[in-house]
Amino acid sequence: MPRIHPTAIVESKAGIADDVEIGAMAYVGPDVKIGPGCKLLPQCHVTGYTTLGANNTVYPFASLGTPAEDFGFEGGKTYLRIGDGNIFREGVTVNTGTKPDTETVIGNRCFLMANVHVAHNCILGNNVILVVGAGLSGYVTIFDRAFVSGLTGIHQFCRVGRLAMLSGGSVFSKDIPPFMTAEGRNGGVKMVNLVGLKRAGISDEAIRALRDVHRIFFRLGLNTTNAIEQIKAEVQMLPEVKEFLDFCESSDRGVLQNRIAGKRS
Question: For a designed S-S bond to 140, which of 34, 35, 136, 263 qualifies (C-beta 3.0 to 4.6 A apart)?
Fold first, then answer.
C-alpha cells in the first residue's frame, strides 16, 4: 500500500502505485496517475490530468499539472506527461497544455532545480538540466542532455538542441543549435560545448568536425544558406554534423548567430 501521511490530501479517484510515498500536507488531484517508486515530499501539489512514470521525486512547494498561464486557455482537458526518474526541486512549476487535448511532456532523468518554470506545451527530452530560476515560455522544445543555466529565459516556440549549453542569466528568442554554447541576450553562439561533448562520450573525430562547423557557420560572416552549403562541401558528414544541419534547416524562428568575421573557434 502507498505510504500516505495522514495530513496529505489524495483525491479518491487518483491512481497511485502501491509503493508511492506522499508526505505531509501534499495534494494529489483526482485525475493524477503516479507510477511506482515515486516520492512526493511534504507540501507539494500535483493536479490536473498529470501522469508520472516511475521513480520521480517531487520536492516541497513544487506544483505540477496546473492550467496554462495563458490568456488563450479556455478550459478543457489538457495534459502533463512525465517520464521516469525525474527530480523536481522546491518551487518548480510545470503547466499542462493550453488547447484541449494538448500536453506538456517531460522525458526521463531530467533535473529541474529550484524555482524553474516550464510553461504549457513544452517538450523536454531526456537528461535535461534546468538550473535555478530558469524559465521556459510556451511551446519550447529542449532536446536530450541540454543544459540551461540559472536565471535563463527562453522565448516561446524556441528550440534548444541536444547537448547545447546555455550560460546563466541569458535570454534567447532564437533556436540554439545542438552541441554549442550560447550566452547573453541573444548574444550569440560562442563555442562548441567541449566539456559536455567529452562527458557524453562524443568522439574526438566528431568534436573536430563540430569545431569546423562552428567556424564556418558562426565565424565567417556567411548567411545561413551559404554556411550550410559550405559545411556540406568541406566537413565530413558525421552523424553529429548531420544533426546540426538538420536542426538548422528545420528552424522556424531562425538560429542564433554570432558572426564575427575572421575569428576562429
Answer: 136
